[in-house]
Amino acid sequence: MPGISLLPWTKRPNQNDTAERDVPEWIVSFHPEVLKLIAKHGLDSPLFRPTLGQLISRLERDPKRFAKKQGRLRRARAADIRFADGAVWRAVFVLDESTRRVFVCALAPHDVAYNEAERRI
For residue 41, which of 28, 29, 45, 116 is within the disulfide window of CB 3.0 to 4.6 Å? Predict the structure, then answer.
């Protein structure tokens, strides 16, 4: 899967295994077109709710919280995002359990995101 990691995972030294960790459990990477959109708007842009930074944080912590899709996108999951004008967007992604990677293949208005995801998965 082509993609570029925006927030690399790093283990913090000297942490007790039983202590609460403030490090991602999953590595999130992006299709180049998704990365361009993130670069254009920024991680903390008020145009998105949740912000793109908050979404990435949720994907790093627990990407399985988002429902699996069906049909041609049965390998994918999707997270809801609202744009400033009220339009419903989707971040469509797939998981690689063996490497604990989340690959965000589409970030766009609802129907566009699913169409892009079908081409990119």
Answer: 45
CA–CA gap between residue 89 and residue 55 (Å, rounded): 12
How far apart CA 27 and CA 96 sit, in angstroms, is 10
Look at residue 49 and tell me if it is in a domain. yes
- Residue 43 is classified by DSSP as T
Do 38 and 52 form a contact (C-beta atoms < 8 A)? yes
pLDDT band at residue 6 using 50, 70 and 90 as cut-offs: low
Q: What is the pLDDT of residue 23?
A: 63
Distance (Å, whole) CA 3 – CA 73: 19
The pLDDT of residue 117 is above 80: yes
